[in-house]
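The authors assume throughout that readers already know how a fold can be written as discrete tokens. What matters is that the chain and its backbone geometry are given together, residue for residue. A single example would do more here than another paragraph of explanation. For illustration, here is how one protein appears when written out as sequence plus structure tokens.
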Amino acid sequence: MNTDMFEKANRLNETLFTQFSKATEMQMEAFRRYADVAMEQARKVSEVRDLDGLKQVTSEQAETLKSLSEQFTSDWKAWQGYLNETREQVQQVFAADADAEPAKEKAPASKGTGNKTTA
């Protein structure tokens, strides 16, 4: 029984470690993208020297905001997919445990019955 518990915990830990690694990678990629956009915008603003430059930067920022909005939507969908995948993986761990338990319970019961009749 203790071995079964450790095996279940090990499978769950492996699943969670894999999923958390994916989450960390997704988060770091998103951070890099948004940091790059912020740095690019800061660079453009720092290069403004006249009214025409300011007009150009503000018109480009509208495009940048549209692009960021699309990226937010894409990231949100990716996170939804990640959460669904994680849920499915954890459910599979517990489903495998649920499927394995009845088989294990039946086997000792039949052996136990057989031992009682021979004793």
Summary: The first helix runs from residue 2 to 46. The radius of gyration is 28 Å.
